[in-house]
Amino acid sequence: MDYNDISIILGLLFVVILIIFRWVQLKKEIWDKANLLTSLGYCVLSFLSAILISNMGRLAYLTYNNQITEEILKQNKPYVFLAWFLLILAGIVTYISLLKENKKK
Predict the structure, then answer these.
(1) 3-class DSSP state of 97
(2) Taking each helix axis from N to C terminus, what angle separates 33-64 and 70-104, rounded to the nearest 10 degrees?
(3) Three-class secondary structure of residue 69 per DSSP
(4) What ranges in 28-69 are assigned the alpha helix state H?
């Protein structure tokens, strides 16, 4: 089992925990398709972010131990940008959903 397998397992565990919490929350509300799709979207976004953030952690570890090479940085540069993009996207979606929820009240 290498580092990537561990990061995927941790990401899946994080997604399962999110699904359980969201299911408990939606159990008290009306269960409809929009809430279900939103929840699954958040879970997928969280899973991808968890994998990419763990990859960034591995890069930080390699940098700290002076084991980083230029080739490793070139290979992982797109993943770092993708991780930041997904985190910003998740923040924007959460902000918009909070605004819509506040307008309903």
Answers:
(1) helix
(2) 150
(3) coil
(4) 33-64
Domain ranges of the chain: 3-104
The amino acid at 77: K
Q: Are 52 and 83 in contact (CB under 8 A)?
A: yes
User: Residue 102 is which amino acid?
Assistant: N
Taking the mean position of all CA atoms in its chain, how far away is CA 97?
17
77-101: pLDDT as tens digits: 776 677 677 767 777 776 777 677 6
* Alpha carbon separation from 94 to 45, 53, 77 (Å, rounded): 12, 19, 26
**pTM for this one?**
0.43
Residue 29 Rama label (left phi>0; alpha psi -120 to 50; beta): beta
